[in-house]
């Protein structure tokens, strides 16, 4: 059965596996002090134009969000996020578990903007009762968003300016960062993100790795004793090499970017195929997630042969579904899908 | 340089990597719902003689300890453990971070006994102030312990009986479980552990996997909504297959046990070599960790050619150091080590 | 200066102070085991028609909400509440600090209804991703609400039925309960609340006490080791008598109800005065909080002589302000206020 | 029945009640912004010789410990304390509930010393695994201790010096502070404590108040947004005046010190009475708690007529019991007790 269900249906890119194999019996020290982890950090820093960047590798996205947000917030602060943000909806209360409120803002296709931040913070401090309320202490955005959309350079710069105005860090969740950076419609580079955000992560799990996210602190702002914080969250791998080796492979020979562009190409092929056949999209997504409006009967028929995700009801006769491409999507599978519609 | 520093210096056993490669491009659903995870659970259950066992795969030991203990304790309860237990000493406060006190008992070569449990619980409830104290709600043991020692069947059975008497679960941390089960001096099987403990985990990270621990609930006691709890702790892998595949390999063709026995054989070779040359051990460890007393000058010389761990000062002229073997230790490396002493 | 700023501007009702004085030198045991606390519980139970009720006295409202919600929720659960609920807005993240998300529902004049509960829970369990989301584990309502409104018997009964259908407890925050029960427009008694809610609290701080809330578990559902939970939250008074004595006074000779009715009478006098002079109310509040729409210039003038609370901007020329009466409000002060408008 | 069970068996000193009554109907703003609270702070500051002191009033001791420790520790830090410290033993895990480990040191009659601190911190940072351990981030002492003992000026100064050397705050729990300051054997004043400690609290609950502790930050180190932190812990009284008025009374006309000296006088009378009759003390306590060794048969007989506390078993024939005096203890009651032995 064809699957466009998500971008984590396969294992890892072959170059990632190859490097795991080649290095397998090399004895290395644990907990991220190995040589591969060090090399991977250097490779990533080359992309960032940010010599002061400090990088830590973690296993997954929710874990990364939870640790960063807990480490950067004061006990009385919460994190501002779109109401559709992953931390707001699909992390089973991971942020609240660590003691912090997610302060939600209405989203616009998954995005929030600088005016919302400014308005929230100013309204907060103008409120005579603000000492009884949760102070906004950080801004969380995802890029690409949960709707596959992207911040433009201008949007990102104005968010960054608003955050600096109020001296609260801007954190970018890049679970699908490669697919954003390689979109044909973006004007944002990884170096721009390093410059405009205080902390962000480069997603590996959805972009060619078995697991792993590269967390980047860009402003000499690595929290003190951060290894202890990682350990305290149960997130410190004994074999830290597992993450270092994977990111070393992904950031060698442009692999991360090449495989991301491939996923974008496949998504464009898929979208064009659907639109040429008269289907409409819910959102004109420039990244690897495509949101197509299907007649309910067509949906049922297609489900017999293809796996994809329910997104939301559109009207009584139609449903929005999501097709995701990835580094692993083949042109053949897209063509097979298009042949079925 | 030779390394006996720990049991997680290399990657994974070749059969583990082989299965990762073979299955790499098979599309599977996420979050542990894949077919490999299901197969791995079945394979493990065959070893347990416990049809009601419920198994979840997690990434690391501290994470597993943190999640199990948080899920099983009531808010007002703490966990009893040896003062040398991993949760007491080397998890950076991971248990306290989740709101629970570790109630420590004096260890005997890393172990605690049923009388200590009984005495603690009875003294607690006899104390007129016990409502102002942390109630003992669970018992944590490690097997092998941090000192490489093992519980005998009789010791484990009496701990189990004490826990049942007070209706508190017995949890066994099996980070190095294979090395305990394959020791020549044990009378405890994995099925015994499943019978006597309420929950335990089978360590993968230190026994041939890149990462991963298999958590086993043995008494129809899987906590409700446990997947949500895992997610809330940032511990739910999108590509759950990574863990399932590795345990499928480890529990096929007796691999887990064979490679564990190999490590034990290497440890015996190492210990015998030292003792034949007149060295003394701190503890007569029957597992893969060996604690040797070195003259300080010998220690310094040896450090130039071998990596091992400082354990503790013995006296002004001597130091205890730890040599660890593993599935990856070669006979050649042990012989090279012995040639150096 | 006149003050209608809130319902906690004075100390305690004279009968409360009188009993504190009379009993002052009587030696009693601590932590709520004193004889006054026992008597107070008996007095309250007489009002509840609920022999199985179990009562604990706590110091304040946020503390009570925090402890009850933490004690009743499972770790993976959150609490449903109106987006205007006190726990949602003005407790500085006290619920999240204890690890739980407040799941907000749009309010209707401060209230939520059974259909919202039913819809939320059913949608939650129908969502294929619900294991990645926070499960609704409890319903929080305030009565009177933050808008001074009241649930009717029918509304409360249907909320109760919805909660029982899904087996989640219904918790009523009665910080101003007396003012709700003595409203001329209510058909709900304290016994009804005991019957329909699983847990609720009878507010003392705003109804004649120096401090204190009486927390009532109505369904044999007092959490185990609840004294330890109170202690763990730093909420167990050494001199528990302070709370017991106050509630003993309040629930002797109908005092709690008489002084609540007085506040209602004063609120009606105030409201009638404003409406007779042509002012409009934002909400037709039947309780002790009155929300009056003032011209901005009138507001400024009035602020010179009277303290009251800003509620919200109405339009460019008008503002909504809140006047609160209480057990301590005198008829003279209301008449002075009305003379000023 | 006579009671020497504890120092919180009665209500409040008559001057405290008198001021509560006199001020009862004065309208004041809430949450500690009232005029009495301001006056009380000024009165206390007069005693401290510390113009930069910042004072907050809280309800109880465990609450105060929990809030201070949580507000001052970083997430990866724990608090050093004697193994007999109140936070270590009798706060039902209140510190761990907030995410922090209590790092215990062996006590000497309830006290710890500078060498222990220095040794712990130095050993910690010398340990190659310290990133996997809980960092010592604060020192907690009680004065008087749980054993009624006192730190000398020299001991306190050396603890203070050790803390400054490592830049970790020294926190003094003064639940019974008055009884320490008025001891005939102390050379420590309240101003000394303000100078040597970074934060401490002046106990009210056990020294004449109905409830309340005055928390003092002495080094311009009041945590930011501390009111929000108090609120988040459910510890912000709506009627903050309750605490302000009581401390205003206690710190007017030397009351706090006079009533503390009275308790000391009563304790001396009691101790001398026992020793003159040949009884021995476990500890030569200079404060209001006296630890007497009773024959078991004498104990049983005495329990028929006097309430006191079991402390610990001495030998098979003897038991240590505690007699506590307080501001409320009368000379008559001590004489009656002595007549019974």
Overview of this structure, please?
The structure is a homotetramer of 341-residue chains. Chain A has 341 residues and is an alpha/beta fold. Chain A is built from 14 helices and 13 strands. In chain A, the strands form three sheets. In chain A, strands 2-8-7-6-5-3-4 form a seven-stranded mixed beta sheet, with helices on both faces. A four-stranded antiparallel beta sheet of chain A has the order 9-10-13-12. In chain A, helix 1 packs across helix 11, helix 2 packs parallel to helix 11 (241-250) and helix 12 packs parallel to helix 14. The model of chain A has no long low-confidence stretch (mean pLDDT 97). Chain A binds chain C through residues 75-76, 78, 89-93, 96-102, 128-129, 131-134, 310, and chain C through 75-76, 78, 89-93, 96-102, 128-129, 131-134, 310. Chains A, B, C, D: Its cofactor is pyridoxal 5'-phosphate. Chains A, B, C, D: Belongs to the threonine aldolase family. Chains A, B, C, D: This is Threonine aldolase. Chains A, B, C, D: Residues 9-292 form the Aromatic amino acid beta-eliminating lyase/threonine aldolase domain.
């Amino acid at each position: 059965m064809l699957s466009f269900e998500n971008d984590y249906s396969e294992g890892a890119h072959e170059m990632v596996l190859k490097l795991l194999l080649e290095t397998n019996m090399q004895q290395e020290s644990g907990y991220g002090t190995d040589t591969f982890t060090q090399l991977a950090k250097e490779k990533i820093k080359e992309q960032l134009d940010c010599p002061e960047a400090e990088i830590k590798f973690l296993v997954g996205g929710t874990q990364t969000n939870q640790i960063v947000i807990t480490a950067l917030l004061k006990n009385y602060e919460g994190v501002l996020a779109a109401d559709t943000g992953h931390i707001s909806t699909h992390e089973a209360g991971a942020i609240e578990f660590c003691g912090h409120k997610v302060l939600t803002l209405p989203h616009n296709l998954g995005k929030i903007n600088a005016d919302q931040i400014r308005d929230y913070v100013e309204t907060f401090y103008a409120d005579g009762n603000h000492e009884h309320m949760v102070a906004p202490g950080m801004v969380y955005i995802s890029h690409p968003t949960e709707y596959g959309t992207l911040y433009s350079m201008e949007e990102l710069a104005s968010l960054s300016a608003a955050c600096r105005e109020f001296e609260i860090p801007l954190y970018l969740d890049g679970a699908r960062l490669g697919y954003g950076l390689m979109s044909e419609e973006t004007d944002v580079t990884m170096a721009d993100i390093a410059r405009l955000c205080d902390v962000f992560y480069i997603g590996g799990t959805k972009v060619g790795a078995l697991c792993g996210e590269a967390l980047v602190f860009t402003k000499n702002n690595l929290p003190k004793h951060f290894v202890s914080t990682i350990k305290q969250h149960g997130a410190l791998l004994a074999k830290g090499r597992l993450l270092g080796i994977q990111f070393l492979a992904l950031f060698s020979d442009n692999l991360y970017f090449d495989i991301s562009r491939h996923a974008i190409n496949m998504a464009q092929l898929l979208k064009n195929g659907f639109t040429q056949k008269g289907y409409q999209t819910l959102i004109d997504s420039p990244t690897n997630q495509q949101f197509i409006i299907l007649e309910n009967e067509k949906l049922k028929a297609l489900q017999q042969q293809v796996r994809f995700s329910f997104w939301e009801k559109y009207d009584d006769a139609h449903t929005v579904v999501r097709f995701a491409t990835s580094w692993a999507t083949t042109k053949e599978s897209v063509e097979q899908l298009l042949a079925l519609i």
